[in-house]
Amino acid sequence: MTTFAIGEHDFLLDGQPYRILSGALHYFRIHPDQWADRIHQARLMGLNTIETYLPWNAHEPVRGQWSWQGGSGPWSGSFEGGLDLAAFLETVAAEGMHAIVRPGPYICAEWNNGGLPGWLFADGRAGVRHDEPVFMAEVERYLRRVGEVIAPHQIDRGGPVILVQVENEYGSFSADPSYLSKLVQITRDAGITVPLTSVDGAEDDMQANGSVPGLHRTASFGSRSLEAMETLRRHQPTGPLMAMEYWNGWFDHWGVPHHATDAAAAAADLDDLLSTGASVNLYMFCGGTNFALGNGANWDDGYRPTVTSYDYNAPLDEAGRPGAKYWAFREVIGRYAEEPQPAAEPPHGQSPTAPALTDRFSQETDLIESVEATADWAVPDQLPTMDQMGQFRGFALYRTRVGLEAPAELSFAEVRDRAVVFAGGVPIGVLSRQDEVTSVTLPAGHYDLALLVEDQGRINYAARIGEPKGLIGPALLRPAETGESGETAESGDEPAVDTDSPLGTPPVSEGLDDAGRSDDPTATEPVELTGWRYLPVPPNLSRLASTRPAHHGRPVLRRGTLSCPTSQDLFLDTEGWGKGLVWFNGVCLGRFWDRGPQRTLYVPAPLVRAAGPEGADPEAPVNEIVVMDLHPRPGATIATLLAPILDSPIRP
Question: Is 245 a catalytic residue?
Answer without folding.
Answer: yes
